[in-house]
Amino acid sequence: MSYELNRIEELCRERGWSHYKLAKEMNDSANNISNLFRRTTTPSIVTLRRVCAAMGITMAEFYKRDGISTVLTENQKALLDHYNVLDSRSKDKAMAYIKGLADGRYDA
After folding, report:
1. Where do the HTH cro/C1-type domain residues begin and end (predicted)?
2. 13, 33, 69, 107: most buried by Cβ count inside 10 Å?
3. How far apart are CA 16 and CA 48, in angstroms?
4. Which of these CATH numbers, 3.40.50.300, 1.10.260.40, 3.10.450.50, 3.40.980.10, describes 1-70?
5. What is the pTM assigned to this prediction?
């Protein structure tokens, strides 16, 4: 399961919410939320924003780890938006390319 789905589960547990309760708070159908977890794919940014709005948290709070808040630049947000629309094979290629840029194997 993706980090995002695990985090949604964690936040639901903290609130005592079921997937049904989350769906109601998001004004969504319980089927849509169930399908999200059944597919075990990374939710889109739009879906994550809706989850955050329902839970009354920001995206930075959603991605907060060990008390450290993650603040993204506009370029980082754009990169994630583009990444999230890719299929899994394209995501793997994008990660390999970015790693290659970071370690100097590819020219920018």
Report:
1. 8-62
2. 33
3. 19
4. 1.10.260.40
5. 0.59
Three-state secondary structure call for residue 68: strand
The torsion angles phi and psi of 104, rounded to 5 degrees, stand at 85, 10
Among residues 19, 4, 12, which one has the least CA distance to residue 62?
Answer: 4
Query: Do 26 and 33 meet the contact criterion of CB atoms below 8 Å apart?
Result: yes
Domain ranges of the chain: 1-70, 72-108
Token pair of 54, please?
């329902």
Map residue 65 onto helix, strand or coil. strand
